[in-house]
Amino acid sequence: MGIVVKLSDSRDSNASLAPLFALVEEDMARVNQFILDKARSNVDLIPELARHLIDSGGKRLRPMLTIAASKLCGYEGDGHQWLATAVEFMHTATLLHDDVVDESSLRRGKTTARLLWGNEASVLVGDYLLGQSFKMMVDVGSLGALRILSDAAAIIAEGEVMQLITANNTDTTEDDYLAVIEAKTAALFAAAAEVGAVIADRPKSEAAALRSFGRNLGVAFQLVDDALDYSGEQSELGKSVGDDFRDGKITLPVVLSYRRGSADEREFWERTLKQGEIGDDDLQTAIDLIAKHNALADTMERARHYGAIARDALAIFPDGDVKSALLGAIEFSVSRPY
Amino acid sequence: MGIVVKLSDSRDSNASLAPLFALVEEDMARVNQFILDKARSNVDLIPELARHLIDSGGKRLRPMLTIAASKLCGYEGDGHQWLATAVEFMHTATLLHDDVVDESSLRRGKTTARLLWGNEASVLVGDYLLGQSFKMMVDVGSLGALRILSDAAAIIAEGEVMQLITANNTDTTEDDYLAVIEAKTAALFAAAAEVGAVIADRPKSEAAALRSFGRNLGVAFQLVDDALDYSGEQSELGKSVGDDFRDGKITLPVVLSYRRGSADEREFWERTLKQGEIGDDDLQTAIDLIAKHNALADTMERARHYGAIARDALAIFPDGDVKSALLGAIEFSVSRPY
Fold first, then answer.
1. Between A6 and B290, the higher pLDDT residue
2. Chain A residues with CB inside 8 Å of B316's CB?
3. PANTHER family given for it (chains A, B) (predicted)?
């Protein structure tokens, strides 16, 4: 799920995100201030633990979507900054809980909060951030935005449970996998974009278009993220190759390779992902099998399909800087090097 | 929704379906007999009206999926023939109800039952066929298959209602459209294929694979069907160009053209599809706009994406005649000339 690229790196390497960064720069400066403010608490542990993750260099794509979407809809006010902060808190809470569930030790290249402060603290600080997130939404006072974001929170939780069930299950179909990523990733992308139209009081058609844009962008983004996990290129991006493999996560490159593989190959995937017996050479074997079955290229191809849908969703909006910036985010998502 | 090609035509023009036809020929002869038997009733109107549609030359792709899926799973018995009959009845019931809702006057080139016998009779005979369908499923005695097919029946009905809501609504997004066709078309394709594994007592992984195959094939099939409605080629296939346009149906070629179009073009779509003011030259204008925005080609491109997923879903099954025949059905669906 996590955003893994440092802002500074992405600026250098990803020209297609530059217009979005430029567009939201001022607003995001305030969002970043709100994030620090709202992670405060008299209980020292809370800001300490929260800031460990908050300062770790995610590129904050989700709140940027909220800011840009509200700009696309001509919103004037500061509610979008608060909603963007709420979106980022919701995402951060999910990451904290994810790391507990996955027993992860590294996130964005840093030791996870759960290893430093314990699982219980990570769960509770996640809940605290989620609570803060809802408080901010309530303060904004848009019942519509509140409904969209609280629906998303429920769906994300559902997606996490679905992921727990599919973990280590090599029988997972592509449809199952898609259902998981639609819930755990795309739902928040969709909500983050949709609320931009809602606080700007734009017609339903624009809210639906932004929702569709966000949802399909989210699916494309996660597909590529899952491809990067088996790709040499991603070590340059601050993530280590094979994390998903070691966690027994069933992502599309694995689904395709397992299904297209021979009986022997399926035995390999079952031993490593189902039984969790992973030897020194197994990651390389996994990468070789994925290459043999063209599974990374086909995962990217599937991502481009969702990218195309996201692009068409935006077509109803007038051309201009904001729309170009959002189209750039799609371009970035489907063309990350793998 | 409807299958529009006569069996004899498809044999000539669609080589990729030939292996499937050959494979299921004997079983389908029995299914066709069951269909005639079970459409009987002491109330003369029922068989008369039912046979009007039943004899009108659908190619019975859905029951063929049930037969082929059960063969792929090594099923031996005759339950698959009854389930296939139940599937076709469910589909026929939907068509009868569809024609009432859409106020259609032609189906597969013939005057619709509702024009000949009235709307009430069409609705009730549809219900009768649905009832017969459930009776046959119960007789087969597989609770699993019964659950899958009755779930599908509920989802199809939901899809029809969704379609009713999106009809004439030019704001429909691609996601909305996909939700409609997943419910009204893909759900029955999915169930038709899945029950083949279920009555053969195969493991869940095979049922899920067949379900995924059927679902994605169904989406691809419907996408292409919707493309054909704006294509000159389809007149050769027994359907008349522009039916969906005259009905104000919002299908993907329209969704893409509307969203990609200029303000003037959107006004055109709103006048014709929303207000239903359709003049003599408007169909040609619609076809020209769709061509201008590359919307048929892109609809076919989206269909190929789902075809690719359907293909991968089948990959876990051993190679052989049956698998080839099902792969041929995908090939047929995504490569119909448009």
1. B290
2. 258-259
3. ALL TRANS-POLYPRENYL-DIPHOSPHATE SYNTHASE PDSS1, GERANYLGERANYL PYROPHOSPHATE SYNTHASE
